[in-house]
Design brief:
Elements lengths: L21 E2 L8 E2 L5 E2 L5 E2 L8 E5 L11 H4 L7 E5 L8 E5 L12 E4 L2 E4 L22 E7 L2 H4 L10 E6 L6 E16 L9 H14 L1 H4 L6 H10 L15 H5 L4 E13 L3 E13 L6 E14 L4 E16 L9 H4 L31 H7 E21 L2 E20 L14 E25 L3 E26 L13 E22 L3 E12 L7 E12 L10 E15 L15 E4 L12 E5 L8 E14 L4 E19 L11 E23 L3 E18 L5 E3 L8 E6 L7 E5 L1 E4 L14 E4 L7 E2 L7 E3 L8 E11 L2 E11 L2 E4 L2 H4 L13 H4 L34 E3 L2 E12 L2 H7 L3 E15 L22 E2 L6 E11 L1
Parallel strand pairs: 8-11, 40-44
Antiparallel strand pairs: 1-2, 3-4, 5-10, 6-7, 8-9, 10-11, 12-13, 12-45, 13-14, 14-15, 15-16, 16-17, 17-18, 18-19, 19-20, 20-21, 21-22, 22-23, 23-24, 24-27, 25-26, 27-28, 28-29, 29-30, 30-38, 31-32, 32-33, 33-37, 34-35, 35-36, 38-39, 39-42, 40-41, 42-43, 43-45
Length: 981
């Protein structure tokens, strides 16, 4: 089965690297550089901080230590200009979406490429089989990170070829230092978590009863009833078996409280030892991270060990080894937007329905909130389980050898192995799959092995001629191999709670083995004259097995920088000034990093399965037409930037303008319907353009002996637009699938994923007999002119909204105050000019469609009605009528919200004991601190009641901004201690 078995369906927050500029000793001498760690790419090739050509930022280790977040990508949120983050779920280990400078492809994950100590680990895309989602980056211990470099433009990313078009995030783990005595460090942090932002207020039993009476009053014609008072209508609602006729008169169930913990707890313990002698340095560290999230029964437990050894065999030969291992035990729950998801169903079930019957059994008669018996969310949590164990090994070995003067050879081998066991156990009585009976349970056991390795070899030449000409040249090759093996065993006839197939009557098994490879040849030439003028060029030739007959592509970049500070005419007002520009063309294959997409070049046949989803006929059919002419996407990047400082670097700026055009974008090509075959195949048919600006400001307003104030601010503007497409319009109909989004569409000239839907005009305030409109009707504009309205949605046209789910503006602001031994820091992040959508709108306010489902309180207090004693003629929501005959609950701009918000992302106060304490105890460092993350969220749209940093999945940009009621993004308040000796 090639689909997931799912039901549905602060520390001191600095950027060490924003001002990687040369500083002038004097205008006629060589440049001195700040001691900033160089960004190492591959094969010993580095981005020289003294001659910055490309666009990149470096985030320091202080941001990752003892973090309450389970994955690295969450920490980057708000800290890098041009980087946008959104989360599919607050459940630790869930997948996230990260975009750098917009979306560059019509298919696949928009996430950047992640590289850890030279190991190419992919794009953090979901590769789970049974879990709702899995973020492979959760296997990495943030405490082991020395820094993270975010590469953005062609000059910085070109060496990663086909996998770097979305940007590259380089993660460097901590190492020991030569000639340093052994140092020990210990830290621990414990915190509590609750919802960061969730303004959905569900109706209590009293409110629900009032709403039920109003609904009955509004629906008299459809009911064939006549009520003289609202109380009569309410009595009908509480007596009619179709509605709430079984109400006992006292029950007031808080289903959300029954499913969620009041607060969750997160604990982190970290220990490391590092040091080195004259020829050898080492570091070994270990971390234990445990998070008991908000949803009852869920848990995330990670043990990590990381080691690094570097050795100088001689002045010419050096080698090193890095190894990271993690073991994760994770327990989750049924996800998606279906009744078996306890998080979703908890907001739908009537508060008049009890959790348990009088005899102690679970109540399975839950009305339309959970129409299938066995879907009581408390019983789902208690009697089903999704447990996973993930073992991950990431390791690399590298060697640098100077075999003759000025010539160097570098070899790096990296590997990532992930062993994943996922087990789903459903006791009898919970028919979450349609093939199940009421008397037998389900057991699924999925075993996945993913093994990636890459080997690069580089020959380098470095020399300085006559003290003026600095030349660096590199030639190299790289080989990548990626394999995926998945074995699945399932049964729908489990007769015992124990999770063993020996207790079942019938079992089904299947397996899949997939592989793809890439081989690359590359070269890079850097030339610097007089420490003023730098030119950097690179060429790469890639061959990738996922393409058809056109497997090879040639890609290049060219960049230059001018260190103006070394010119004699520079005024003293500047303390640094570098101008830079780069242009290049990169290749991309948008689906290469996501399994089950490696064979798009081939025509494939599928034999219909009769397992899991019901009695299919077992017919064979053509699943994919294939396309042997598939070729590389080509992304042309232009970047123009400047880095400058004044007041002796007390005020520094980094400015960037970028223009990126992706041509030959791969997307669906539609054959004639007369072929009778697949509805589409993949071809190179589109083009996407990303344009924008970025600015980073570092300032030190105050610096005295006892007090300092440091500011870092970053901001970006950017938009992604579809320049070309093979058809005039592509929509993504379907209400619940991860690959659907009924509110967005693709079309030439429109924003990527621009909202395209019916334009909601509100609620009719008066009768309009000529147009058949009654007061209280929901109405739509007939077209984009907004001049005519209708209460018949079929008479209205869809309209382009001019907005999408990707913020046009992203900002981050960090302030840090140091007074003697005290440090106070806080970070604000903001996203502006974008829309988000409520993917569960048809549940939370359904205008009467589901008479026995609970809703938010707006359904009661802000809906039109003429019910006596409850009249409301100026409401924002239409008159609720059973069955919602005019379908006002379905998709339209009514359920779009402005996502603009400001979030207090992190705040931290710390005290470090001073020298007197250190001298008396021998402890090098003792720091105690308190920290909060996602503490406050201010939204500009008063109707926005869900988290604006939402996405429904990470593997497709269609999920961006789509809120599915999942485990919420959490707010954390924690306390910690750091000890070093």
């Amino acid at each position: 089965m090639n689909v997931k078995l799912r039901v549905l369906s602060i520390g001191v927050l600095f950027f060490a690297g924003h001002a990687l500029n040369a500083q002038r000793a004097n205008r006629d001498t060589a440049t001195k550089t700040k001691e900033i760690q160089e960004v190492v790419l591959i094969g010993g090739i580095k981005l020289d901080p003294a001659q910055k050509v490309g666009a990149y930022n470096v985030v320091s280790k202080a941001n990752f230590e003892s973090t309450p977040f389970s994955s690295v990508d969450e920490v980057l949120n708000g800290r890098v200009a041009g980087l946008n983050f959104s989360s599919a779920s607050g459940d630790p280990g869930s997948s996230n979406m990260v975009t750098i400078r917009g979306v560059s492809s019509l298919l696949g994950t928009p996430n950047p490429l992640y590289v850890i100590d030279g190991v190419i680990v992919g794009k953090g895309s979901d590769n789970a089989s049974l879990m709702e989602s899995w973020n492979p980056l959760s296997a990495i211990d943030p405490n082991a990170i020395e820094n993270v470099s975010v590469l953005k433009d062609a000059s910085a990313t070109a060496l990663y070829g086909s996998r770097g078009a979305n940007g590259v995030i380089l993660i460097t783990t901590k190492k020991g230092k030569y000639n340093q005595k052994t140092r020990f460090e210990f830290s621990t942090e414990t915190g509590t978590q609750d919802r960061a932002f969730d303004k959905m207020e569900l109706m209590s039993s009293d409110e629900y009863i009032k709403y039920g009476g109003i609904l009955m009053w509004n629906s008299q014609d459809l009911l064939g009833q006549t009520f003289s008072t609202l109380q009569e209508a309410t009595n009908f609602f509480l007596s009619e078996p179709t509605y709430e006729g079984n109400y006992d008169g006292t029950t007031n169930t808080d289903w959300v409280k029954a499913v969620n913990r009041t607060s969750s707890v997160v604990n982190t313990y970290n220990f490391s030892a590092s040091g080195g002698g004259e020829n050898t340095s080492f570091r070994i560290g270990g971390t234990y991270y445990n998070n008991s999230p908000l949803i009852k029964t869920s848990n995330f437990d990670r043990i990590s060990v990381n080691t690094a050894v570097d050795h100088k065999a001689s002045d010419k030969l050096k080698f090193g080894v890095n190894l990271n291992y993690s073991n994760i035990k994770r327990q989750t729950y049924f996800g998606g937007r279906a009744s078996a998801n306890p998080v979703t169903s908890s907001i739908m079930i009537s508060p008049l329905r009890p959790i348990y019957l009088e005899n102690g059994d679970y109540n399975q008669d839950l009305g339309e909130g959970s129409p299938t018996p066995g879907f009581n969310p408390v019983s789902i949590l208690d009697e089903t389980s999704q447990k996973s164990t993930i073992n991950t090994i990431i390791g690399s070995a590298n060697m640098d050898y100077q075999f003759i003067k000025n010539f160097y050879f570098n070899s790096l081998y990296g590997m990532q192995a992930q062993f994943m066991t996922e087990r789903q156990n459903v006791l009898a009585g919970h028919p979450v799959y349609t093939i199940m009976t009421d008397t037998q349970g389900f057991l699924g056991d999925f075993r996945t092995t993913i093994f990636d390795w890459n080997w690069s070899n580089t020959l380098g030449y470095r020399n300085i001629f006559n003290g003026r000409h600095n030349v660096q040249a590199f030639l190299g090759m790289e080989y990548q191999d990626h394999t995926y093996n998945n074995f699945q065993a399932i049964t729908f006839t489990q007769n015992d709670p124990r999770p063993y197939f020996g207790f079942s009557d019938e079992q089904f098994a299947s397996n899949t083995d997939q592989q793809w490879r890439q081989i690359s040849y590359f070269g890079r030439l850097n030339y610097t004259l007089d420490s003023k003028y730098t030119i950097s060029g690179q060429l790469r030739r890639d061959g990738n097995s996922t393409l058809g007959e056109n497997k090879w592509g040639s890609f290049w970049s060219l960049g230059g920088s001018w260190n103006v500070m070394n010119e004699s005419f520079m005024p003293d007002a500047f303390s640094s000034l570098t101008l830079r520009a780069s242009y290049g063309v990169l290749g991309n294959i948008p689906y290469a990093d996501q399994w089950y997409s490696q064979y798009n070049q081939y025509a494939t046949l599928v034999y219909d399965s009769n397992i899991g989803w019901g009695p299919y006929g077992g017919n064979g059919f053509i699943a994919s037409a294939g396309n042997r002419n598939l070729s590389w996407e080509e992304s042309a990047h232009l970047d123009v930037g400047a880095d400058f400082g004044i007041l002796n670097e007390r005020l520094k700026f980094t400015l960037d303008y970028y223009d990126k055009l992706t041509d030959k974008a791969i997307f669906r090509s539609y054959p004639a319907v007369e072929t009778g075959g697949p509805t589409f195949f993949y071809d190179n048919v589109g083009a996407i353009r990303n344009r924008g600006f970025e600015v980073v400001v570092d300032a030190v307003p105050v610096r005295t002996e006892n007090f300092s104030w440091n500011i870092n601010a970053n901001g970006s503007y950017g938009k992604s637009r579809i320049e070309k497409l093979n058809v005039d319009l592509v929509t993504f109909e379907g209400e619940t699938s991860d690959g659907s989004n009924e509110l967005v569409a693709f079309a030439p000239g429109k924003l990527f994923g621009e909202y395209y839907t019916w334009l909601w005009a509100g609620v009719a305030q008066t009768d309009d007999a000529a147009n058949g409109i009654s007061a209280g009707d929901g109405i739509w504009y007939t077209d984009g002119s907004r001049t005519t309205v209708t209460n018949d949605k079929a008479q209205a046209e869809k309209v382009w909204m001019g907005k999408n789910a990707f913020p046009t503006y992203n900002v981050g602001l960090t302030n840090s105050f140091d007074y003697k031994n005290f440090t106070l820091s806080f970070m604000l992040s903001g996203q502006f000019d974008f829309y988000v959508q409520n993917g569960v709108h048809s549940y939370t306010i359904h205008d009467g469609r589901f008479a026995t489902r609970n809703q938010i309180t707006d359904a009661l207090y802000n809906s039109w009605t003429d019910a006596p004693g409850a009249e409301n003629f100026s409401a924002d929501n239409p008159k609720a009528v059973i069955t919602n005959p005019r379908s006002s609950r379905l998709e339209s701009s009514r359920f779009l919200n402005k996502g603009d918000h400001i979030r207090l992302k992190e705040a931290r106060i710390a005290y470090s004991f001073g020298d007197t304490f250190k001298d008396a105890t021998g402890i090098n460092n003792l720091t105690i601190y308190a920290r909060g993350t996602n503490l406050l969220t201010y939204v500009f749209d008063k109707d926005l009641n869900y988290d604006p940093e939402s996405t429904s999945n990470s593997w497709s940009a269609l999920g961006k901004g789509r809120y599915w009621y999942a485990s919420p993004v959490v707010r954390t308040v924690s306390f910690g201690i750091q000890i070093g000796f």
